[in-house]
């Protein structure tokens, strides 16, 4: 259960989508693939599923090319996953023929959970119902690599929470490599074991979540104390209000215990805020 990108490049006309992108994802794990709009996430995910060819570089999924064995991967996009004129039962039948590990019983259990009738046509489904169908197919596929790219458009907070619980339940039932790409990062962050951040088509960061949290924190104190602790080094974000400064720091050179010795208050940085500031164009997306 692994995905390897080696120096992958892709352009659409004059626009560079992926710029020498290289990384390795090893499973079984639940990983987050994060980045701003236009960073290249969806292009990379579609390449994993064998839907888009790279211009250069190589992609290997479970030891083979995704273009030779696309049924190693189940990709559920934000929308447009299923033929609109198909009924749900026909959609499930099609999925069962494509995915060798398909579990029809589990699919029907999930349909019931999302209140979906097999007789309904895809084109008649609301956004939330179509998302429920996508989640059903993704989970019931039992593909070694299962990808959800913004899978819950139209779902309310309670339904999204149900999806997170289902993801953990399915991971425990049959471990696989789940890749989740979302803009609701703080909601999903509790699921991630590893985080990958793509910026301008290249890999900006890959860390396991525990290490990431230990290497990033905020410091708050008087201007004098914060300036003394920073000692000329640039934080990834800095804000001054009412005579006090809050700065966000990331990297192995920063030590939270040492910061507290400078009479500074420290706190964790939510992964969503960390991603935002690391990819801020004003800092060039540099750590």
From TrEMBL:
PROSITE patterns: ABC_TRANSPORTER_2. Transmembrane segments: none annotated. SUPFAM superfamilies: P-loop containing nucleoside triphosphate hydrolases. One of its GO terms (molecular function) is ATP hydrolysis activity. The keyword Glycoprotein does not apply. It comes from Domibacillus aminovorans. Residues 3-225 form the ABC transporter domain. PANTHER family: ABC TRANSPORTER, ATP-BINDING PROTEIN, SKFA PEPTIDE EXPORT ATP-BINDING PROTEIN SKFE. The keyword ATP-binding applies. It holds the Pfam family ABC_tran. It comes from the Bacteria. This is ABC transporter ATP-binding protein.
């Amino acid at each position: 259960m692994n995905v390897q990108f080696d120096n992958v490049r892709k352009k659409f006309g004059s626009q560079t989508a992926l710029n020498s992108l290289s990384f390795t994802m090893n499973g079984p794990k639940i990983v987050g693939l994060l980045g701003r709009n236009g960073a290249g996430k969806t292009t990379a995910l579609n390449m994993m599923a064998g839907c888009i060819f790279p211009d250069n570089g190589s992609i290997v999924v479970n030891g083979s090319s995704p273009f030779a064995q696309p049924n190693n991967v189940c990709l559920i996009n934000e929308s447009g996953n299923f033929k609109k004129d198909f009924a749900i039962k026909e959609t499930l039948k099609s999925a069962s023929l494509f995915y060798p590990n398909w579990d029809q019983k589990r699919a029907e259990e999930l349909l019931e959970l999302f209140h979906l009738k097999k007789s309904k046509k895809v084109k008649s489904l609301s956004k939330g119902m179509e998302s429920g169908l996508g989640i059903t197919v993704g989970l019931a596929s039992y593909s070694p690599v299962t990808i959800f790219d913004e899978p819950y458009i139209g779902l309310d907070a309670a339904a999204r929470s149900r999806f997170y619980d289902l993801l953990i339940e399915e991971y425990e039932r049959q471990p696989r490599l789940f890749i989740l790409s979302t803009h609701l990062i703080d909601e999903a962050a509790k699921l991630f074991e590893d985080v990958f951040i793509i910026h301008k088509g290249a890999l900006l960061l890959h860390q396991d979540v525990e290490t990431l949290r230990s290497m990033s924190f905020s410091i708050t104190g008087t201007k004098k104390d914060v300036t003394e602790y920073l000692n000329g080094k640039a934080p990834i974000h800095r804000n001054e209000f009412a005579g006090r400064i809050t700065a966000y720091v990331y990297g192995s050179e920063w030590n939270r215990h040492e910061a507290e010795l400078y009479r500074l208050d420290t706190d964790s940085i939510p992964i969503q805020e960390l991603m935002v500031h690391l990819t801020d164009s004003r800092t060039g997306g540099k750590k």
